[in-house]
Amino acid sequence: MVFKAKMIRILDIIISSLSIIILMPIFIIFFFLGWLKFRSPIFVQKRLGINLKVFKIFKFKTMITNSYQASHFIKKKDIPKYGEFLRRTKIDELPQLFNVLKGDMSLVGPRPCLLNQKKLITERKKRNIFKIKPGITGLAQIRGVDMSTPKRLSKIDTKMLKINIFDYFKYILMTLKK
């Protein structure tokens, strides 16, 4: 178990570092465009990570300032066309590679929840989901299950507790295909 965790951490560091280097032109372009659109291109939000540790997640900003920040409650008017594009293409998620590099997240794992998602937190506690690092992608994202269905999501997240190296790469490839 410890070896598997260390191996995944090493892969996280290597893959996120290489991804940041390769994608740097995209980071620069969307940082600049976000600056023009919002005057603050990076969105920072508190999320729950491993062992219920609070950390700050990074994303490219996609919504107008002062909008409700939970994706399944967002009003259409709060997301400009630029933000829609970032969300549809998942470019808004790219800054999370820095969360992976920092060690707050893994590339693969259950999505980190908001501090106010009490039902989801309760369901994940029941199933020990907080024993692993949250991820940028995972089985729930591949299956299209979001945080609006806490019980269903946490049941799928339990499969992430037993992730192996094969699944790690499989989920990354499935995400890239999607």
Task: Describe the fold and architecture.
With 178 residues, the chain is of the alpha+beta class. The chain has seven helices and five strands. The chain has a three-stranded antiparallel sheet. Strands 3-5 form a two-stranded parallel ribbon. The chain is globular and about 45 Å long.
Helix content: 40-55%
Q: Determine Rg (CA atoms, Å).
A: 16 Å
Give the SSE order as H and E letters: HEEHHEEHEHHH
Overall 3D form: globular
Give a concise summary:
By secondary structure, the protein is an alpha+beta fold. It has helices at residues 2-38, 81-89, 96-102, 118-126, 139-143, 150-157, 165-177; strands at residues 42-48, 54-60, 106-108, 113-114, 135-137.
Write the layout of secondary structure elements.
Layout: H1 2-38, E1 42-48, E2 54-60, H2 81-89, H3 96-102, E3 106-108, E4 113-114, H4 118-126, E5 135-137, H5 139-143, H6 150-157, H7 165-177
Parallel strand pairs: 3-5
Antiparallel strand pairs: 1-2, 1-4
Helix pairs in contact: 1-3, 4-6
